[in-house]
Amino acid sequence: MTEICFMQEEETKQMLSQNPQKQFPKISKKAWISETAVIIGNVIIEENVFVGPYAVIRADEPGSGIIIKKNCNVQDNVVLHGLSGSKILIEENTSLAHGCIVHGPCKIREGCFIGFGAVVFDCVIGKDSLILHNSTVRGIKLPPSKVVPDGMSINSQKDLSKIEELTAELVEFKRAVIEANLELVKGYRKLEN
């Protein structure tokens, strides 16, 4: 089992704050969070997570919560926000690329990629799936290993006939993005020590 040591409020330079319910983010000491990221409320961030500049991670509405599992990356200008009573789960080895929006309720399973400017809301994204750039996925359950092409809007299960299968090239792309961001976590953490 992975040991998680969370940063205490006084140890952080980042823009972290409690929500109106007095819940404060819990962040692994082995994560790297940009000083310009904003993280509010009932948020758990595990080890080796990269949170880039100007990312906003908000679990401030009553009953909302966000969990980001190990080895994920939340890139520049990403927004994660949970509605009242909703949860967001980002499983291991998932990339949230620049400027995407993930709005709860939402589950993104292990090994996924959410592309630049994509919007994901009220859905479950199956393991190893990709939501490519400027796509919208709302109110569905996406099976594992699927690809929503650039700019496509999917908002019902019948739209699933339009999606593509995962290719070896995209598997390699996802792996390279995770690896690059894990190296960033290591590099930035060395600078802090």
Sequence-ordered SSE layout with sheet pairings:
Layout: E1 15-17, E2 26-27, E3 32-33, E4 38-41, E5 43-45, E6 50-51, E7 56-59, E8 65-68, E9 73-74, E10 79-82, E11 87-90, E12 95-96, E13 101-108, E14 113-114, E15 119-125, E16 130-131, E17 136-138, E18 141-142, E19 146-148, E20 153-154, E21 164-165, H1 168-192
Parallel strand pairs: 1-4, 2-5, 3-6, 4-7, 5-8, 6-9, 7-10, 8-11, 9-12, 10-13, 11-13, 12-14, 13-15, 14-16, 15-17, 15-18, 16-19, 17-20
Antiparallel strand pairs: 19-21
H/E element string? EEEEEEEEEEEEEEEEEEEEEH
Query: Based on DSSP secondary structure assignment, what is the total number of beta strands?
Result: 21
Which residues sit in consecutive blocks of at least 5 with pLDDT less than 50? Answer: 8-12
Shape: globular
Q: Just name the CATH architecture.
A: 3 Solenoid
Q: Which bin fits the share of residues in helices? A: 10-25%
Descriptive notes:
The structure is a single chain. Mean pLDDT is 93; it is low at 8-12. The longest helix is centred in the last third of the chain and has 25 residues, at 168-192. This protein has one helix and 21 strands. The protein starts with 14 loop residues before the first strand and ends with a helix. It has a single domain, classed as Hexapeptide repeat proteins (UDP N-Acetylglucosamine Acyltransferase, domain 1). Strands 1, 2, 4, 5, 7, 8, 10, 11, 13, 15, 17, 18 and 20 form a 13-stranded parallel β-sheet that branches. An eight-stranded mixed β-sheet has the order 3-6-9-12-14-16-19-21. The chain has 193 residues and is mostly beta strands. Helix content is 13%, strand content 35%.
